[in-house]
Amino acid sequence: MIVAIFGVLLLVNRQTGGMFEGLFIFVFPIPLVAYSARYGLKSSLPVLVCTVLISFLCGTITSNFYAISEAIIGVVYGSRIYAKKDMTHTLVIVVALSAVSELICSVALASLFGIDIGADITEMQNMLNTMLAQAGVDTMEGIFTYDYLKRIYIVSVGFLGAIEGFVVYYLSLQVLRKLRYPIMKATPLFEFYPHRITGVIALLLQFLYQYTFVKPFSNETLQNVTQTLGICGMLYLVFFGFYAVLLIMNIYLHLPRAVGMILSILIMFIFSALLPYLGHAYISLGLH
């Protein structure tokens, strides 16, 4: 039944020319979440294999990867509910998987889907330069360079994937609660202790990301994959760096939570280059 529901969603998306693909991205994980939350990871793996196979029969080339990645996220999400894992950890995992899948599909595998990111960024650059020229600004090339716009593009794609992960998490959670699934209460995010090695790996990926801008690889696919992993590591560190600033505001400065939140957001934009290193200290050096 779960495979049939998944196949119908793919078929409807295909017959409508992808009109509802943006909506179905949030719906694809729900059948797998419900099944794996009821029966666990081991019983869900055959269902996952069948959904992957049916995606090639009923989906399109561009929608297959989204469908498969969302199915994997659904199985991981539901199996953690079945195993009664902490829901805060589950939220972080779902958001991270969603951001990574969006980055891989939009950046690393763009050429396989017939998408020329370089041409899109160049067109964006030309449009911005034209707008600035009409406004009488003479420093167009120095402001919006190709590398700068490419970084903005990658960051925005990763952020979009993270937002999708949040929506998938809470939408699936509401469906499961309506179906009266037993859901564990989430612990506060301030009590979440990520593994120390993840901070080291994320910092190394960020350094590798910076290296690719100084000395790009000759292989375009390798360059895109490396930058994708690097931006994932950077976003991971920035996320926990922001929480480190929040804790500093609450514990050392004893500011009200609303004031601390506003100041933390301002610091995130003003001192954005320092946040990844603060996040590394938060995760790996015992700052938490």
Any overview of this molecule?
The chain is mostly helical. The protein is about 80% helix and about 0% strand. It contains 12 helices and no strands. The protein has helices at about 1-15, 20-25, 30-60, 60-80, 85-110, 115-135, 140-145, 145-180, 195-215, 220-250, 255-270, 275-285. Helix 5 (about 85-110) crosses helix 8, helix 9 (about 195-215) packs antiparallel against helix 12 (about 275-285) and helix 10 (about 220-250) packs across helix 12. The mean pLDDT is about 80.
Binned, the helix content reads over 70%
Structural class call reads mainly alpha
Order of helices and strands: HHHHHHHHHHHH
Radius of gyration, CA atoms, in whole angstroms? 21 Å
Mean pLDDT: 81
Strand content: under 5%
Write the layout of secondary structure elements.
Elements: H1 2-15, H2 21-27, H3 29-58, H4 61-82, H5 87-108, H6 117-134, H7 140-143, H8 146-178, H9 196-214, H10 220-251, H11 257-270, H12 275-284
Helix pairs in contact: 1-3, 3-4, 3-8, 4-5, 5-8, 5-10, 6-8, 8-10, 9-10, 9-12, 10-11, 10-12
Which features would summarize this protein structure in a list?
mainly alpha, 12 helices, 78% helix
Q: TL;DR of this structure?
A:
The chain is an all-alpha fold. It has 12 helices and no strands.
